[in-house]
Amino acid sequence: MCISAPLFFKFVSLPFPDKFPSCLNLDDLNLINNKPWSKKFYEFWEPGTETALKKINAFKEDSINSYNSDRNIPSLSGTSKLSPHLRFGEISPKQIIMAISDLEENDDVMTYKAEIIWREFSHNLLWYYPEIDTKPIKNDFLKFKWNNDENNFKLWTEGKTGYPIVDAGMRELWLTGWMHNRVRMITASFLTKHLLLPWQMGEKWFWNTLLDADPASNTSGWQWVSGCGADAAPYFRIFNPTIQSQKFDPDGKYIKRFLPELKNLPPKFIHEPWNADSAILKNSDIKLGETYPMPIIDHKFARERALDSYAGIKN
User: Fold this and answer.
1) How far apart are alpha carbons 200 and 134 in whole angstroms?
2) What would the CATH number be for the domain defined by 47-128?
3) pLDDT one-digit tens code per residue, 196-207
4) Of the four, 11, 198, 233, 236, which is 20 to 30 A from 2 by CA?
5) CATH class as words, domain 137-315
6) What is the set of active-site residues?
């Protein structure tokens, strides 16, 4: 054991200079103009209550009556995109409900209202479970054996998993600060069930990159997908990213928007480039493993491993 001798400080007065050297004012350095960090933001978002009200009115006129079908298609503007405005208090849930209160309560309108209520339910959960950002609501998952592979996490954050729908979602998030909700579920399921990485890692990444990162809905959404939250999707519900991609982005419009390296790939192979033969890849200017990665994990293997891991905590 090492015992340190006490430190003694001697305080001395410093002489005040007769004359300060000439220097620049802070504004003269032109620091803000040298780093136009906010420029890209306005390509995708316009903050403010006025914008939020315009969005709900446009959504009410153009999209709400096809909400049930269009909300799952990431290439369409089928959602209201009000979540960032809700997050920062530029519009309230009550204002949204009041704005659509004169509409006929068909399935589309009721589904949209349910999404607003789900957000409020998440805030209720946060009240009763203040540790919801770190601790699962279902205690069984405290025993779950996660795989903390930092390299796989890095590839997921960078959109380099080799599964186009996952990678497109992660690239959309990084580029725009937002991700389509259907794709959020796919990417979250991939992280927690294909890669067996803790949902807390994904929740923190979304918190740091999403404009609408809400302390309640972001966390409860991650717990829902990973199976450990309130009224959560069963853990054994494991999204097949290829099937999800084929179903909700059949022509690959969304994928090609955020993965331009796959823009020349025929729709038949846009969801699984690894199944294209060498001639198709060459004609599409793609070199698997170079210009676009091979899948970092096999779906069948990942699914079986996830189910085995889940069985471990149930038994």
Assistant:
1) 6
2) 1.25.40.80
3) 999 999 999 999
4) 11
5) mainly alpha
6) 115, 118, 146, 181, 199, 222
